[in-house]
Amino acid sequence: MKDYKPIISKNILELRQKKGMTQAELAGLLHYSDKAVSKWERGESLPEFAVIAEIADIFGVSIDYLAESEHPVKNAAPAMEPTASDVVSQARKGDAGDVCPEILSESAVQAAGQPVPVCPDTGGADAFPCTDTGSSKTNENAPAGDTAPSGSVIKKTINGDIIKQRSNHFKRSFITITCILFLWLFAILTVSIIRSTVHSNRWDWLIFVYAVPCSIVIWLVFNSVWFNKHRNYLIISILIWTVLFAIYMTLLRAGFNIWIAFLPGIPTQIIIYLWSKLSLRSLNKDSAVEEHEDKRN
What we know:
By secondary structure, the protein is mostly helical. It is built from eleven helices and no strands. The two termini are 30 Å apart.
């Protein structure tokens, strides 16, 4: 099956630039983020079929247009269909061109006040040259690969790409959750062994407390590799507070109720917030520079 991803991506980029729209403006019309539009235009992913149809409506083109690699005729106004009088008068002058009376009904020609012309093979006295318009026939000499894909083919391709993405996302989520569950299984086994060997141990339950930040670390690692990296700021914030909570519970079990152990989390949280804002601003700046370079090209 033909890969339509680079073709659709290229067409979306060209149509947006020709209309003088930014990625943010197009994203606003589609209720998506400008980062999603940027991924579409770079060919990293494809929008769903319903979004493809909405993009086609915004730019005033068909869905097939978005899946065509070449557009020999752009913005061409549809030819006006000749009237019956024009056809008959041109035929009388021997200038019928590509218009054939076969496409007109007998009543329409008679409505022009003229006798019905016939093609040469009928042998009529008023016969005149009749050519095939090709409006209802396909070009037999045209290569099969040049035909425009139908909307169903495009929809099938896009849906297949979406199904593949969702399948990969499910597999990665399954691996992440499985690793976290193995960590908790190890914690449970450790506590069970300790309690079976040491009957008076008052520290073993802290293993579950420290298993929480360890689980967050696993989540952070897999999210950085496979998922949305912008979510890392939230995960790091959760990690900081769970570590502080584990430290507090350890001190509390030792007999020290030191709630002040949570205070370092406040400036740390502020730093994480400022860091996320700075990173987002830098990302928007890079996106604007990339869009400017696309316009220059």
